[in-house]
Amino acid sequence: MITVRLPVRSGRAASLGGALIGLALLLSTATSGVAQSPVRAETLDVVHAARLALDSHPLTVRAGADVTAAETDVRIARAPLFPTIALSGSTVRFQEPMVVAPLHAFDPTRPPSFDQTLVQGAVQASYTLFDGGARRAATRQANAGVAGARAARTAAEGDVIAAVIGAYVDVQAGRAGVRAAEAQLEALAAERERAERFFREGAAPRVQVLRAGAAWEEARAADGAARARLSAAEHDLARLTGLDPDDMANQMLADLAAPARGEDFAREVANIEGAPRLETARQRVETARAAEGAARATRFPTVQGLFGFHQFGSGSGGFVGEWQAGVQLTYPVFAGGARVAGSDRARAVASSAEASADAVELELLRALDRAEAARTEAAGRRQALVAAVEQYEEVARIEALSLAEGAGVQRDLLSAEAQLFRTRSSLAQAQAALTRSTVEIARISGALDLTWINQNLESGP
């Protein structure tokens, strides 16, 4: 904080001194983008905001449903590993009497039973003894689908969290920009009042009044633009978290600081081997290779074991039961080239999936390089702007004192005020860019979750 003591003089100097004291106080209390405000009990912290978004965002809801569907596919794929058992029963009425009991031989002394009503019941079981590996391939496909769906869910959660943090820091930067604009307006209003008073007293030319008024109008335009950007950022954060957009303007946010890590932070976390998007692509390759195995299985015969127990009877009773057991072999001798074409297609799909995985890996590496460069740039820019804000605050203070003493030039004060406002706004944006680029590195590598936020983003007073 900058403390200013001005000598109190009579007449115009005293009035000017009071105005400049207010100006100095505004300079010292306006945010520089670094200082953190106290956190109230109702403050929304970024972890809670991320939780709200994860619970309701369509991307995470859909990703969760996709995981459930993929896990169900595993159960479906494993079902053929067990025997199939079926119960059946029927009652049929014939126009003429019909044989209602099994006839395995003809014995004239024991004629078969005839009746117009035939009642049948059966228990049938079958089990595939050999299918050329089709069941194994289907299970492999389903398991790869689950792994891919889970990786996609992790990627979706990372995208949502990154969007929330981006909106969160945009709101913080927007509020810092509005505070800087308000401070500039107050300071320029004081200077405009001083210029008008001096002009009325004949101690200053009209050009000073016009110059001060123009600077104030320009600052008012900057204030309106800053408020518009802030409103857009607050609505964005509200939409992501499911909160009421109209209430977001009154919602306190916990302050965030960039991760307290060294310059090698990016390299420490930049490991795309665990990147969920790369894992999803690799699981698509695994699915395609499993489909290749399923296509090869069609070249082999299918062997099934069969068992059944049947009961026959008439409307008047007299039920007779018998069992059946056997082995069935099925092999399509000619399928019009479908098996060969299916194998060729499966190989092509697998090759396409492998190329897609390579493309995803390449794009992730490129994105990581860009994020690392952006973080390095933002960190250096933030460090420089912190020092610049302190220096411009001192310049504005000195120019205000010089003008009060009659030794300064109004143009220099207005220029210092404008530069201070721009630097404060730039500092807020650099802070936001540093946080976003750091979060982007974590998102790409797959490390971005609620635990990562707690460990790497300092939140609180």
H/E topology pattern: HHHEEHHEHHEEHHHE
Rg, please? 39 Å
Q: Compute the average pLDDT.
A: 83
Total count of strands: 6
Shape: elongated
Poorly predicted regions are 1-41
* Whole-number total of structural domains: 2
CATH fold title of the largest domain:
Outer membrane efflux proteins (OEP)
Spatial separation of the terminal alpha carbons: 18 Å
Strand pairing plus helix content: what structural class? Answer: alpha+beta
Question: Can you summarize the main beta sheet?
Answer: 4 strands, antiparallel
Q: What's the CATH H-level homologous superfamily of the largest domain?
A: Outer membrane efflux proteins (OEP)
Proportion in β-strands: 5-15%
CATH hierarchy class name of the largest domain: Mainly Alpha
